[in-house]
Amino acid sequence: MHASGMARHVQAYEFSSPEQWGNERVIVGSKQSGLSNVRALVEKSAVLTSEQRRKVLEDSSVQQKILAELKRRESAGFSYELAPASLELLMLRCVGEYPRNVVELAPPNVQDTLGKHSSATIKVQVNGDIEAHHEVADSEHGVIQALWLALQKATHNSYPCLADLQLADFQVHKDPTSDEGAGSVVQVHIDFSFQGTSFRTTSSAPDMLRACWDALHDGVDYVLLLRPVRA
Known about the structure:
This protein has eight helices and six strands. By secondary structure, it is of the alpha+beta class. A hairpin with a 6-residue loop joins β2 (118-126) and β3 (133-139).
């Protein structure tokens, strides 16, 4: 209702512009969203092209598809409200135009000894290359960094701009709706910085490392879709 009302008459909810006070208006996507939220998010997207944006805004069935998938994933443990970057990628999946810049060919393999070094092995296809990129990385700071280093090694030659992509922070939370104890679904949020831009991705799974890997993968995909990088 809020998003719909804002689209019709801003003054019904704002007595003055947020920018006047150094703030900004943020419309989020969650399982409480409606089609007005979807349209607002599409209009503000940093990675959708003009043609993709038009395709969604002019077709209510695509909007319904995005909304249904958003609600389905949030019910499964995802939390897109705090991670708009992953939500923009979800929109592209629903439009059927998700890029295949980095494709997972096999689930990553990780080895970790508590208190000692960690190792991650990944197998991905990068930039449509016929030959698979099979990379191994070690870290003294845990499995997540090992996965991140392996992903950077795999994409370095095809996408040198990713050297500027920094993993700033990550958080792991138990899905509050999951009641499986130690086997509960977890939510992962990862904060990235890239050439002065900050964004957050998210994923969810019973396996924490699976969720972390998917959120890392989203970070790479998102950067490669930003307009200044593609130009």
